[in-house]
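Human: We require from you a protein record containing the residue sequence and its fold in token form, and nothing else.

Assistant:
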Amino acid sequence: MIKFAMEVCDIQRREGRYFVFEQPQGSRAWDLEAVKKMVMRQGVDISTMHQCMYGLKARDTMGEASAYKPTRVLTNHEALAEALSRQCNGMHRHAHLVGKTACTKAAVYPEEMCTEVLKAVAVIKKGIEETQLYGVDREDMCEDDNMEEVTGEGYNDFYYEGIVDSVTGEGLEPTQVKAGCDEALKYMKSMKVWDRVLRSGVRDKIVGSRWVYAKKPNLVSCRLVAQEFAGSEKREDLYAGTPPMAATRYLLSDTVSRGRGAAGRRRKLMVLDVKRAFLN
């Protein structure tokens, strides 16, 4: 399906028309050869938008809030790229899209996003009308550019551009994101988290995955997490939240209040933190 979409986009481009192709920022579609080749085509731009800035909403235990939903857009007109390039300003809370119902609702484009696209289309239409009015010859867009398969270092660097913190929406340094992803994949490979199998041999539902990014003082923490396999079922074993500060204070206070243990031994309070949790 993605390959067919790229073929349609290329037809639009070659015929002097325009296209918009969007997928979630963490989608595996951006790793497909057909998409990578389209990214490298002459006149094609790639931008990143956060749909919370277009009014996308979701609900969680704390009520309604903006839904972050980072999305990448591929287009061949600067007006469309600019219209679909808003990024979170970090001035609001985000509600996580958990469960099939929330994800289904978030699949509907926000009204403000549609409005911006229509404005961009109006700009494109006006430009075409002015070109026809003044008799200016348009650039021959049917002549295909010399596109050879690009390999080697830097081929996938565009994947790490425009990535932001999954909670705060703050922009992240691409080199740190790449280093974080490489480190996570290295450990997962050493722990033998997965086995490579053919899709034709899978009988059950294929579990999707996405990257979660968190900015640390001198690095970016990257975690590959499973998604949409619990459906609407609420399971406490699927999420381990950070204990509130009040719980830590209580434990410290309780330990100190109890004083020394049996035989006058000093009590010790041990805090354990799991550095990496894998999908196995």
Q: What stands out?
A: Confidence is low (pLDDT under 50) at residues 134-155. Residues 117 and 200 are 39 Å apart (CA to CA).
